[in-house]
Amino acid sequence: MNKILVLLSCVALLSLGCSSTVKIQSLPGEAKVYIDGQYKGVTPYTQTATKPFFLPGQLKLTKDGYRDLTVYLKKDKFSTANCIGGVLVMVPFLWVLEYEPEKTYELEKK
Predict the structure, then answer these.
(1) Residue 9: CB partners within 8 Å, gap ≥ 6?
(2) Alpha-carbon distance 46 to 69, whole Å?
(3) Span 37-43, average pLDDT
(4) Cα(102)–Cα(110) distance, integer angstroms
């Protein structure tokens, strides 16, 4: 029974440490958001991802009258909690980075 509780605790810690959230904003607002080619909504948009830090997502913002903006959405902020979680469950430190809480992108007029 104790082994099962330890295993479930490790899985819970790992899954919590794997996710990271970023609020994507644009100037001007209400730009369409595409992540890895899939339409997600309009800005402001909140993205939660569980990818390791070395797998950035492609972010594309579009709005009529403005040039499309394509960037890579990277996790670039060190997370102490995720690092500790990695030590506790003895997995590679694939999730030691997380998104900055908020990113704002300025679109250029055509």
Answers:
(1) none
(2) 18
(3) 97
(4) 26
